[in-house]
Every structure is written in C-alpha cells, then in structure tokens.
Amino acid sequence: MTKRSSFKKLVRERMKKTGESYSSARRQVIAAAAPQAGITHYPGINPATSALRIMLAAAGVTNPVTKQPFSEAMLLGIAGGLGAGVFTFRYEKEDFSSFFAAGRHLWHDNLEFMQACLGRLGVECKVWESSAAKKGWEQLREALAHGPVAAWLDMAELPYHGLPAWMSGGGYHVLVVQSLDEAREVAVLSDLMDEPLEVPFGDLERARLRIKKDKQRLLAVTGGGNAADLTAAIGSGLQACADGLTTGRMKNFTLAAFEDWAKQLHGSTGKSSWAVLFPAGRHLWTAQTWAYDCIEHYFSGGGMLRPLYADFLAEAGQQTGNKGLAALADTYRSIGAQWTELADTLLPAGKGLLGQARELYELRAESYNSPAEVELARSEIWQRIGELKKQASAQYPLDGSQVDSMLASAQQQLAAICIAERDALATLREVL
After folding, report:
1. 167 phi, psi to nearest 5 deg
2. What is the DSSP code string of 56-92?
3. Which of 157-166, 237-246, 261-270, 286-295 has the lowest mean pLDDT?
C-alpha cells in the first residue's frame, strides 16, 4: 500500500505555524485530505463519521452541492452532531474509580448514529450480525461485495493499538474493513490512521468476537443517495442534535450531565462528588488524565468535538445560504476553545508528573494515528503512563491547597461552558 509519509509532516508544519495542538492541527489537515491512491481511505477523527465518509466515497455518493465526497464534519452534522455524557463509577472491592465524558450525538450507539445519517441522505444500507465465528466470516465476505464495510469490534484485541490487557472487552470500536487477502490471510483495515494497515485474520476474528453484545456487527452501503436534499438532511441533523442535547435516554445523556459534573468537581460532599470518588492520589490522577483524554483526544479532534461541529456549521451555512449557521459556527468554535482550556487546567503542561503525563497522552494520540512515525511503541507509552500513576500514588504532585485551587478553577470553567452550551443550543433552535 502507498505510504502517506507527508501527512504527518503537514500536521507538524501547521502546528508550528498556528500554535494549535496536535489534534486540532490534524483535524484541519484531514478536512483538506484527498483519498489515498488505489484505495478509498481517509484519515479520521471519530470512528463512526470516518467510516461513513469512507463507505460513501467508495460507493460514489457525493455532496450534491459540491459534487465531491462528503467531509467528515458534514457527516457529523447530518448524523446528529453533538451530544453529552458523563459517567463516574466506583468499584469498592477493587478500590477503583473511573471517569468518562463524551461529546458526540448518540455516542453510545454507533449503529443508530450511522443509520440515521445514511437515512437522511437517502442511502440504503444493510446490517449483518452473528455470534458464531464461521458465520461472521461468511457475512463479512458477503458484505464486502458492496464495498468497504464498517465492522464493530474490540480495539484492545487489535495488536497495533498496544493497549494493556485489562482493557480487553471494553474497547468498543468501529473501523472499516477494506478487503481480505485470502492467500495471505490478512485483512486491509482503515482505522482513523494516516494510512490503511494489514491485520492477520486471527487477530481480526478475535477482536470481532470479544464484545459479545455487538455480535460481529457489520454495516455496508448498498445503494442510493445522490438525489438527496442536502438542506433537508442538514435540517434533520440539526434537529436531532437539539433534541438529543435535551431529551436523551436519561439525564446523563444530555447537557445536564455536564452541569452535574460541574457541581461535583468542587465543594460537594455527595457520593458522586470528586472529593469522594477521586481523592488526591491515584484516584484523582485517573480522573484528571481521563478527563483530559476525553476532551482532547478520545475521538474528539480536540475541544470535546465542538470545533469539528463548528466546521460542519460553517460548511452547511455556506452550502445552504443560512447565515445563522455560519454565525453559530463561531460560537461553537469558541466553546471548543473553552473545553480545551478546561483540559489544560485539569492536566497542565510542565516538567512535573502531570506535565509528563500530558506529554505521554499527546504522544499516545499521535502514535494512534501515525504508529510507524513515533519513536515509542504504543505499548511502551502505556507502560510509562502506568509508571507515572504509581509515582503519583506514592507521592501526589500537588498539595491540598493546590488541588483545591485546581478543582475550583476547573469548576468555574466548566460552569461557564455549561452556560455557553445552553445559549448555543437556544440559538441552534432559532436557526432550525
């Protein structure tokens, strides 16, 4: 396969020119990227939107206004755009507390998210599922007759990710299977990275079987779409975004989740407060690092996905003539910057343990997208992150007053973000 060796160079050049983070600079370079020669592959930001982009482009389904393949930002917006979710769990027996935050519409259900997008574009699709390995291979070969296929699997079981063993069974993921080389028994995959890669059949099978509830799910584009009404598709996606932010399946799936998080960050003593769940030491370390990763790197492109949604709004405004969308794009770009500032407060740059951890999370994000061009393997990055956590457990790098100050600042920032999110949502409803 052709190597896209210049892609990372473009990202680095943009970072130097603009001062943007790796994720932010990469998002902009991706927007201008052409598909790789010989195979319909695009580097991606979010697994579901990236898979949609690849499958639609391979099927010849184009944006009816530009006559070009859809951008990832446009597909994000049509699929429903932004969402919200915050979950904290405490496992007393294991003495372990976890934190997770999400910012995409239907972040918990890639199938519904992708089907909604395709439906709004008038594109036909088909889904296959099976719990049996042999049947799963038969279905994959059948699905590939339609072109590249989205596949549900456990990323922790894919060797190139280098994830620690304890993550097995929890790496919910979607990627694209491009083709199968039966003679060599390797599958060609597109997985957000700068270029496609090959994985042995055995590894792919194990990853597909690991998360049993996903039943080796596959989705393929099977036809239609070029006669789609783009304005109607955009409008439907905007409505889904507005509805999802206020009426999700439960409170933790709406903007209220961010508001509750703000209350729990500082000055609260309830069982869900950070003071209870994440006391200084390894627990607070977990919350800080995971919150930073969710905001800046975990399939968000930086800024809790808000800047990518701003790209959609700007593009949609230009292509539909809706000036209100263009103005709203500036609002969400600003909110994305606020999210990044919050991430900076929770995991500040510097020479201490927190700064070292931040550098490793940045390097991990970079290695995810350009594994062959990073000096450390992902497994070694994970090992070093674990070593820093042990050091923080033994001697946390902040004293009590510093922890209090950090969390108070983070709470103020998050409270301001929540107000901005509510105001932006009200404006979004006005432009519908």
Report:
1. -85, -10
2. HHHTT-B-TTTSSBPPHHHHHHHHT-EEEEEEEEEET
3. 157-166
Contact between residue 412 and residue 327 where contact means Cβ atoms under 8 Å apart: no
Report the 10 Å Cβ neighbour count for 213: 8
Q: What is the pLDDT of residues 390-427, one digit of tens each?
A: 999 999 999 999 999 999 999 999 999 999 999 999 99
* Tokens linked to 268: 């609260």
Asked if residues 176 and 55 have their Cβ atoms less than 8 Å apart, the reply is yes
The answer to pTM > 0.85 is yes
- From the list 55, 56, 59, 10, the residue with the least C-alpha distance to 31 is 10
Q: How far is CA 227 from CA 54, 220, 371, in A?
A: 19, 19, 39
> Which pair of tokens denotes residue 291?
């919150």
C-beta contacts of 261-264 below 8 A and 24+ residues apart: 261/86, 261/101, 261/414, 262/411, 262/414, 262/415, 262/417, 262/418, 264/88
- pLDDT at position 37 is 63
